[in-house]
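Support case: manganese (II) ion complex. Customer-provided input:
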Amino acid sequence: MSLFTPAPEHRFTFGLWTVGNTGRDPFGDAVRPAITAVHTVRHLAKLGAYGVNLHDNDLIPRDASAAERDGIVREFKAALDETGMKVPMATTNLFGDPVFRDGAFTSNDARVRAFALQKTMRAMDLGVELGATTYVFWGGREGVETNAAKDPQESLKWFRDALNFLCEYNIAQGYGYQFALEPKPNEPRGDIFLPTIGHMLAFVYTLDHPDMVGLNPEVAHDQMAGLDFSHGVAQALEAGKLFHIDLNGQKPGRFDQDLRFGSEDVKGAFFLVKLLEDSKWDGMRHFDSHCYRTEDEAGVWEFAKGSMRTYLILKDKVARFNADPEIKALLAELASRGAAPGQRLKYTAESAQELRDRTFDLPAMREKGYDYERLDQLTVEVLLGVR
Ligand code: DIG
Ligand code: MN
Ligand code: MN
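Agent response - structure generated as follows:
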């Protein structure tokens, strides 16, 4: 078994909708037949994945009867038991049904807001039945094309009402979910509310149960907003709010491509893996992405294998970076200047007085550089495989 062979210990998970993507896009029909949930579980297990995640309707058709629902769940659970695959995360499809065309929790139609709550409670029930402990909320339709349509303050209040209500449901049912909110700046709505990690983090602290709620950031979504994804993830992590993550690839300035992880912006993917691995984050390495529309089913599984393999290759690059003598020496120099993690600054009358009285050798401080060119060149050489 090579260093880059995925195994359940790596905690790779895929949404059913990812390998199940049939290639339909706004300009063309499906190019691949749908892959069943049971086939997905069995094939991903063979490839070394840890589990699958799902929206309610990835497994249960919208018009399924209670008996049909129970039969589908029974068959799916049998495949999970047979393979040992887990379902760490569940979520609700609050964007596919035309009823949600003006949003779900922030629709101007109060009946739609109520239906979205009912649908989410039922989907939370399903997730618990499958063993999920994280519940994701992606507000793909929570937004506008024209600001004439909606009061942005009232929309935030509606969204907060829904989440507070569902936090109470989570408590009342004893489900023990962690809620993970997923930001995205636009698409499918012209503008989506709470568009980035920063917006979403600030919103979490306005909720009745902020401890129950964190984030599910996605690579492509913050990159669509022109942001450095690993900086946003670091802020969520530092706040103890990185409850889940959606890994994929994205070219700047384009629609949400949900490309294979690491297939674009290798350096960005490297620093994300470095952040997750160096911090020993124990969350799921979840891929929310899909293969190119050009592919057949064989290409779907190449996509899945490549996603996990690239993560493991980058994890090895992180180890090489951390062990590289020249890189270590440059980082040690920076640490000696004060870059090392250390004591937090605390105000006391004494420390303030000491700071006021301190003298600085400003000419010397102005003169010395930081060797970042050398440090980044070494980083690039690690990534290019020559170190
Ligand atoms: C899209 O980025 C969203 C939906 O696929 C889903 O609700 C969520 C789960 O990761 N990501
Ligand atoms: Mn996406
Ligand atoms: Mn996502």
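The mean pLDDT is 98.

Case will auto-close in a few days if no follow-up is received.
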